[in-house]
């Protein structure tokens, strides 16, 4: 494009951009001088400069996609999106909703974090997964890159348990990535992953494991399926004490007390009663607001279960089911 032609055909620049994002270096190659590009980005001008050396060819509020494209241009040709944005773009719902874009770049790349872009130089640059023409870190790496930065227990729990529970990542692959990757900020993810590997499927179940540890009772099995003497299905309890045939259910309002959920819960409890299984039902909120009382309820029910003959029921690990 000859110098000045872009002014007569404004769409020509858009065709050369990534959704409206373009580098100043490329604008110069297209005949727009750096001075002109920056002058058009002053407040009130027709363009904007979200990052050093990167221009958006509009003064409107940038879309999320434009911010990601601008970040990738800033990071350079080998940059890969990781963290929360990569998790969202690969279908997870739990990542925090913020403006940051976390990039991985080769270790030799001399580029620093700027504005909303977190740049992490790495010697372990992953082969990207391409979604909607965007290079993303594989989900195992993206989840842990985000968890290392979150630090707080609840959001890390939510993200890791969602990724595992929905079958999007293998928890043993998470462990391998934790061992092989950066050790910075891994204490909380390691603690949570240990609980996930022990059967926790949600934040509530991780809280439940902490409460159970207060009871002094033998460790239960988590997320097994119960069957009667004829092989008939009983339930999938959250926690199961096989030696005394006692279950613990963490029953949230969201999943159990709508019309359909309430009916399912009643039917489940009838099956427990018919099979002779004792059950403790606990709301997730009580795991944090009243853990001592919940622990005492568990101990009392366990004593009652141990005092009666054990009913003929058996548990099956979920992985062993047909």
Quaternary class = single chain
Give me the side-by-side strand order of the main sheet. 9-12-13-14
- What is the helix tally? 15
Main pleated-sheet profile: 4 strands, mixed
Mean pLDDT: 88
Question: Could you characterize the architecture of this molecule?
Answer:
The protein is α+β, with helices and mostly antiparallel strands and 322 residues long. It is built from 15 helices and 15 strands. The chain has helices spanning 5-8, 10-16, 24-29, 34-39, 64-75, 83-89, 139-150, 153-165, 171-180, 187-197, 203-215, 253-256, 259-275, 286-289, 291-307; strands spanning 21-23, 48-51, 54-56, 80-82, 101-106, 117-122, 129-131, 134-136, 221-222, 224-227, 233-235, 239-241, 246-250, 278-282, 314-317. The strands form 5 sheets. It has a 4-stranded mixed β-sheet, sandwiched between helices. A hairpin with a 2-residue loop joins β7 and β8. α8 (153-165) crosses α10 (187-197). The longest helix has 17 residues, at 259-275. The radius of gyration is 27 Å and the shape is elongated.
Helices and strands in order:
Layout: H1 5-8, H2 10-16, E1 21-23, H3 24-29, H4 34-39, E2 48-51, E3 54-56, H5 64-75, E4 80-82, H6 83-89, E5 101-106, E6 117-122, E7 129-131, E8 134-136, H7 139-150, H8 153-165, H9 171-180, H10 187-197, H11 203-215, E9 221-222, E10 224-227, E11 233-235, E12 239-241, E13 246-250, H12 253-256, H13 259-275, E14 278-282, H14 286-289, H15 291-307, E15 314-317
Parallel strand pairs: 5-6, 13-14
Antiparallel strand pairs: 1-3, 2-3, 4-5, 7-8, 9-12, 10-11, 10-15, 12-13
Helix pairs in contact: 6-7, 7-8, 8-10, 9-10, 11-15
């Amino acid at each position: 494009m000859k110098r000045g032609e872009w002014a007569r055909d404004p769409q020509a620049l858009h065709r050369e951009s990534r959704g409206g994002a373009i580098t100043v270096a490329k604008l110069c190659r297209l005949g727009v001088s750096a001075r002109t590009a920056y002058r058009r980005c002053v407040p009130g001008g027709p363009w904007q400069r979200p990052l050093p050396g990167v221009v958006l060819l509009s003064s409107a509020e940038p879309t999320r996609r434009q911010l990601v494209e601008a970040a990738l241009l800033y990071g350079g040709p080998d940059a890969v999106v990781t963290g929360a944005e990569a998790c969202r773009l690969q279908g997870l719902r739990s990542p925090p909703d913020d403006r940051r874009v976390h990039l991985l770049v080769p270790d030799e790349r001399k580029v620093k974090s700027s504005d909303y872009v977190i740049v992490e130089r790495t010697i372990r640059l992953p082969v990207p997964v391409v979604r909607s023409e965007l290079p993303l870190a594989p989900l195992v790496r993206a989840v842990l890159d985000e968890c290392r930065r979150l630090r707080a227990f609840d959001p890390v729990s939510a993200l890791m348990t969602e990724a595992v529970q929905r079958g999007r990542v293998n928890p043993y692959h998470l462990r391998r990535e934790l061992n092989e990757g950066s050790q910075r900020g891994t204490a909380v993810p390691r603690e949570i992953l240990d609980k996930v590997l022990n059967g926790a499927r949600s934040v509530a179940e991780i809280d439940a494991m902490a409460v159970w540890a207060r009871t002094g009772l033998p460790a239960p099995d988590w997320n097994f399926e119960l069957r009667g003497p004829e092989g008939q299905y009983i339930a999938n309890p959250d926690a199961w004490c096989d030696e005394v045939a006692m279950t613990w259910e963490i029953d949230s309002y969201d999943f159990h007390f709508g019309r359909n959920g309430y009916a399912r819960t009643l039917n489940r409890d009838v099956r427990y009663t018919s099979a002779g299984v004792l059950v403790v039902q606990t709301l997730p909120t009580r795991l944090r607001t009243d853990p001592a009382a919940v622990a005492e309820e568990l101990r009392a029910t366990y004593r009652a279960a141990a005092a009666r003959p054990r009913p003929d029921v058996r548990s099956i690990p979920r992985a062993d089911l047909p």
